[in-house]
Amino acid sequence: MSAVLVVHGGAWAIPDELAKASVDGVKAAARKGSVVLRDNGRALDAVEAAVKALEDNMVFNAGHGATLNVDGEVELDAIIMDGRTLNCGAVSSVKNIPNPVSLARAVMEKTSHVMLTGRGANLFAESVGFSTVTTHALVSEFERKEWECHKTYAAGVLEDFNTQWTHDTVGAVAVDSSGNVACATSTGGIRNKMVGRVGDSSVIGCGAYADNLSGAVSCTGHGESILKVTLAKLILSHVEQGKSVADASDLALQYMGERVQGGGGAITVSPSGKWAATFTTQRMAWAAAENDVLWSGLDPNERKKENLN
Amino acid sequence: MLPVVVVHGGAGHIPKERAENSTSGVCSAVRLGYLVLQEGGSSMDAVVEAVVQLENSPYFNAGCGSVLNVKGEVEMDAIVMDGKTLDSGAVSAVRNIANPIQLARLVMDKTSHACLTAEGASKFARSMGVPEVPQESLITEYSRMRWKKNLAPEANPVECQMGKMGTVGAVAVDKEGNVACATSTGGMLNKMEGRVGDTPCIGSGGYADNLSGAVSTTGHGETIMKVMLARLILFHMEQGQSAEAASDLGLAYMKSRLGGLGGVVTVDPRGNWAARFSSQQMSWAAAQNDTLHYGLYTGEHFRRSIRDTH
């Protein structure tokens, strides 16, 4: 069967000035990940490669380009999950690591745990040879300026408009030619978040989930809302009940909007290669590689097609 | 049928010499939770009250009595969730406070976030006037002994897990039909520094939704996370399974898919409840209709009037 990789670069009201860079970024990441899938590559390797590419890209709020917490520091969250075994690795509130998704994978493969946080996660990174970068290297000038500017707003003011917040978490899902699914999500969190705030991205079943029996999901959007409805697992529970990946994603996102007034997006893939990129926010930058086609989109119902190679 | 509160003191293998303290601990906690409910208190107040009791008791792996991480230090996780609004609050890897469950509730009530970790959680605690306690006050001789034993290279980690005291938790339905859950733990014996288990992860350590019910879990954390045990049980209840059947289905799946053992306390909005476990034991107690229910070993179900002060 043909392998599929879907990637997202965040669901939010992406401004026009960031639109092209966001779409270019997800397409480049999808291309990188699909190279891994070729020649019977593993879904797990593909999602890691795709998310690394997004983390390395300053445009997105993950790894390089991450947003700042209230103290002006970068704290990163990431998760990766293997649908075949349900093995999972996650890190929350980790500092100065350029590729948190790779650290999450190391937690999964080199420890008997699923999740490490804070200083413990950084100590582990050091123990397995991950190099660090300065906070300065991770933060864009644009972000630092935005952070200065937003510091003057009370957090409460922004809350009512959670769909307007920058939510450019990144993620990827894939199914390989063996029918194994995998997912990965990575983020710097919300700008001006409290120190130590953990959103959905590193929480299993919320920011992401993968199970060969149903599929793989990676989510983006208002983190606290995604947590409340355990969005990734909710989508897959609909798939288990017989819904298509598109319908399952629509239903779950609709529910999140109605029940807790949260906006977001999700990319979903089934073990048989069906996929969907769905969102209730104004925009979501996404791309999908299937056979030799690269699909991408930004605005609702938009689907552009081009050659993968 | 309402109100109801069900409490657990951990699933695993509770050594005989600690069994009595474990049972009396959960019974005390459930009595206090029930009192809150009888006086018209919310299910959230009741579960927090019950868990605070268990955190304060040295006989459980939460607050005082927490297991130690590999460095011999205490790092705690906790979660609360409100079934009416789906609001939740959680803390992970927090140090030097007596009641992580109360801090978790403050995260829910006083911030726009759902989870704070490590130093950030401590910073928030300070800002809320939560007193910092010396680590020594949380460490018991028993937990220190288990930690030392487990450091030995020939220690069998699985076997050593079996001897640990358990995560604690509670679920309740109040007179208004609102459900809530609370779970608190010191985590896994000799865990890596910064290891976060299922407890503060919504859907894994606990979940509460007025549309289906509330669950608090205990057992092998990593396995509970991989199957999202609390949410899984509630999905079954949404599809019409009873609290007991859904709990058994969830636990059976965890065992057959991943070989992991655990236990849960579950309640639905109508007051049906269950205390189920796939491990050897789980200390649990429930209060409903002025009756105290409790047990420890599989198949045990004792009943007494809640007024019996034994």
TrEMBL record, chain A:
Q: Which domain of life is it from?
A: Eukaryota
Q: Which residues does the entry assign to the active site, renumbered to this chain?
A: 169
Q: Which residues form a coiled coil?
A: none
Question: What is catalyzed by this enzyme?
Answer: L-asparagine + H2O = L-aspartate + NH4(+); Cleavage of a beta-linked Asp residue from the N-terminus of a polypeptide
Q: Which UniProt keywords apply?
A: Autocatalytic cleavage, Hydrolase, Protease
The protein depicted here goes by the name Isoaspartyl peptidase/L-asparaginase
Which Pfam families does the record match to this protein? Asparaginase_2 (PF01112)
Q: Where is this site: Cleavage?
A: 168-169
Binding residues for substrate: 197-200, 220-223
What is an example of a GO molecular function annotated in this UniProt entry?
A: asparaginase activity
> Alphabetically, which GO biological process terms does the record hold?
L-asparagine catabolic process via L-aspartate; proteolysis
Cite the InterPro entries for this sequence: ASRGL1_meta, Ntn_hydrolases_N, Peptidase_T2
Q: What is its EC number?
A: 3.4.19.5, 3.5.1.1
- Family in the record: Belongs to the Ntn-hydrolase family.
A cellular component term from Gene Ontology for this protein is: cytoplasm
Automatic annotation (TrEMBL), chain B:
One of its Pfam families is Asparaginase_2
Gene3D superfamilies tied to this protein:
(Glycosyl)asparaginase
A single GO cellular-component term from the record reads: cytoplasm
Q: Which InterPro entries match?
A: ASRGL1_meta, Ntn_hydrolases_N, Peptidase_T2
* SUPFAM superfamilies, per database record: N-terminal nucleophile aminohydrolases (Ntn hydrolases)
Q: Which GO terms describe its molecular function?
A: asparaginase activity; beta-aspartyl-peptidase activity
Keyword tags? Autocatalytic cleavage, Hydrolase, Protease
CDD domains the UniProt entry points to: ASRGL1_like
| EC number of the protein | 3.4.19.5, 3.5.1.1
Any GO BP annotation: L-asparagine catabolic process via L-aspartate
Binding-site residues for substrate, renumbered to this chain: 195-198, 218-221
- What is this protein's name? Isoaspartyl peptidase/L-asparaginase
What is the source species?
Oryzias latipes
